[in-house]
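quick one before i forget lol
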Amino acid sequence: MELSNNNTEKPVLPFNNLYLISGLVNGLNKGWMYLTTVLLLIIGYLLFQSIIFYPLINILKQNGYSETEILSNAHLLFNSEALKLDKNWVILIELGMFVFAFIGFLLGLKKIHHKSLTSVLTGFQKFRINRVGFAFLIWGLLLLISVIINYILKPADFTFQFNLQGFIFSTVILLLFMPIQTGIEELFFRGYLIQGLSQIFKNGIIPLMISSLLFGLAHMSNPEVQKFGWSIMLSYYVIFALFMGCITFLDEGLELAIGIHFANNMISGLLVSTRDSVLKPYSILETKNESPYLELICWFFMAGLTFLVFVKKYKWNNFNLLIK
């Protein structure tokens, strides 16, 4: 605190970024509160797993899989072919974990921190839903264009597998539950962690780097990591997280990041699936020839173009928001 000439105390804020300030001035910010809320999120995530894993293991055993096979390959628990369940039931199970995690996180935020959800979502008084829609539209359009170009250049790499009924149900499930999955990841990694760590480091850059690394590590159990290797996949996830964090700082809220993340997971899943995808909805196409290095190059192009569109539309000119 700093004492002014008229004896009125004014808080000295270490940031000029409304988003970081929102985390500082709203609710209570004690270290044990952050640790407890993180624990509640993890408990929610694991609670759902503990409820669903036993029935899934029994189904696999009934389908001829031994306990040794299941323990050595945990991805069987979410393999619709191994379970002999419809794909849509499996993605409901996978997304259910994030619903429970969100409930745990919300309990900590409301009951322990006494913070509003809006204070973690944005630096403004109201959540800017129009920004979510615009980001979803831009990223979704770029994804569609990239798939069309790849299909034209290498049609032999793709298999048309459109199932109208399955596709409709997949779309409905993803529309209902994917915002929770992408939302809790953005809230936790790009929001809650960055706002909390910024109060320790008195800046946003170090928290962004830490949270981006944690975001990458959290995805290292995904099946595509086993296929392509942790180095390329960790690089992809960390770079993706850094990009999302930068636009969050510049726009002083999570809205654009949520829109991109939602589009990235939903549109890509419905357009093209692979045997190594985490979520396997009823997609229009399937590909067996993936190149993570080529996809990373394509992603850089999409991210650069998206960034330029945002700079133009939202007239970003205060790039000091990235470091202060």
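fyi Residues 1-8 have pLDDT under 50 and may be disordered.
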